[in-house]
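> call design_seq(struct)
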């Protein structure tokens, strides 16, 4: 049995035991039509008993600096800031940073299982051992129907709840399961998640949701390399307030003249930082640093490695105190270059050297939050 309790916060975590039979793990993936998104916003907020309010309030006390972030979100939603207990399941910047530091060296925490060497090019070949043992603790990179994903927001949260509740049920642990909504160039997914949590906070008591967005930025110039065409680097912005105007209008403006958020114009790292002036909450991260978005230009692997490291360095230099993490434990790599063990090790060491935290996600696009993009897998 895996023992992770020693590394976890004793206040919120207790012993882990094996558990299995998460029902949706074996479910055959199916397509979800975007027009089937349930109009949850028409459902009224649930009434909550006093006793349950105090349970939710207790969760808020653990991260006192996040209360202001949540109260402001409520004001921007047109709701009463006194109802802040309703947002206990939203992870604010203090909790997010705390969580990332706690698991900085804990790669297994971000992996649903191991990928056998023989199927290493298949991004969804994880053996699910960490999901079955309950060690799997966070998927911080998920797309919904609001961009190019296939799950609705309520389906994403329902899958997370089902898994998280089973972890608690079977072993009595209070450990939350973390998910982040990171749709491409839109805050709509995070907005809907916020709405669902506000309306029915008790349902989500065993999960924590990071409200985010994945922004397409132009890959910065890399010293000594000439790109044949503009390349894109993906930047994760976490702990956003989807109703806040300055950052919200900026994100909207990226896809104003295109027909979908997938065709948003490439912004720049500088522009992202500029639009976060005065915003104390949003934390920036460099998504999938070894994604081979430059490989057509940089065919030699040593040049590619050098370029990846330089990109991380530029990310830190430009984002300064807003830049918090790099997706060092990304699970969606399938390319020969990006699966280079030496490169992946270098990235982690370089993050440690620069003082950037490492986190991980599946880059979920299909029908299970425990997978990356089974669509490609199924095609074979
Ligand atoms: Zn991406
Ligand atoms: Zn993504």
């Amino acid at each position: 049995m895996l023992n992770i309790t020693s590394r976890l916060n004793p206040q919120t975590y207790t012993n882990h035991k094996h558990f299995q039979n998460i029902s949706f793990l074996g479910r055959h993936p199916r397509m979800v039509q975007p027009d089937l998104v349930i109009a949850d916003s028409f459902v009224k907020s649930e009434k909550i008993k006093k006793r349950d309010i105090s349970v939710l309030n207790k969760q808020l006390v653990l991260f006192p600096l996040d209360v202001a972030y949540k109260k402001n979100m409520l004001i921007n939603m047109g709701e009463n800031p006194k109802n802040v207990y309703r947002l206990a399941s939203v992870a604010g910047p203090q909790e997010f940073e705390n969580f990332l530091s706690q698991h900085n060296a804990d790669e297994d925490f971000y992996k649903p299982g191991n990928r056998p060497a023989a199927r290493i090019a298949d991004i969804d070949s994880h053996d699910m051992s960490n999901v079955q043992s309950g060690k799997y603790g966070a998927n911080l990179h998920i797309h919904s129907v609001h961009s190019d994903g296939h799950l609705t927001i309520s389906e994403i949260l329902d899958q997370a709840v089902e898994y998280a509740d089973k972890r608690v049920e079977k072993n009595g642990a209070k450990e939350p399961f973390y998910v982040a909504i990171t749709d491409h160039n839109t805050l709509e997914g995070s907005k809907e998640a916020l709405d669902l949590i506000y309306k029915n906070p008790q349902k989500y008591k065993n999960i924590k949701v990071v409200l985010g967005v994945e922004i397409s930025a132009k890959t910065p110039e890399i010293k000594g390399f000439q790109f044949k065409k503009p390349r894109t680097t993906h930047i994760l912005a976490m702990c956003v307030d989807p109703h806040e105007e300055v950052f919200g209008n900026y994100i909207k403006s990226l896809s104003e003249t295109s027909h979908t958020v997938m065709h948003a114009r490439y912004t720049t790292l500088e522009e992202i930082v500029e639009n976060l002036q005065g915003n104390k909450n949003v934390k920036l991260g460099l998504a999938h640093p070894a994604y081979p978005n430059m490989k057509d230009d940089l065919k030699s692997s040593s040049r590619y490695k050098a370029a990846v490291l330089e990109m991380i360095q530029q990310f830190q230099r430009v984002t300064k105190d807003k830049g918090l993490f790099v997706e060092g434990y990304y699970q969606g790599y399938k390319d020969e270059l990006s699966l280079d063990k030496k490169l992946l090790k270098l990235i982690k060491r370089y993050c440690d050297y620069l003082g950037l935290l490492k986190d991980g996600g599946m880059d979920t696009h299909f029908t299970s939050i425990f997978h990356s993009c089974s669509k490609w897998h199924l095609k074979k």
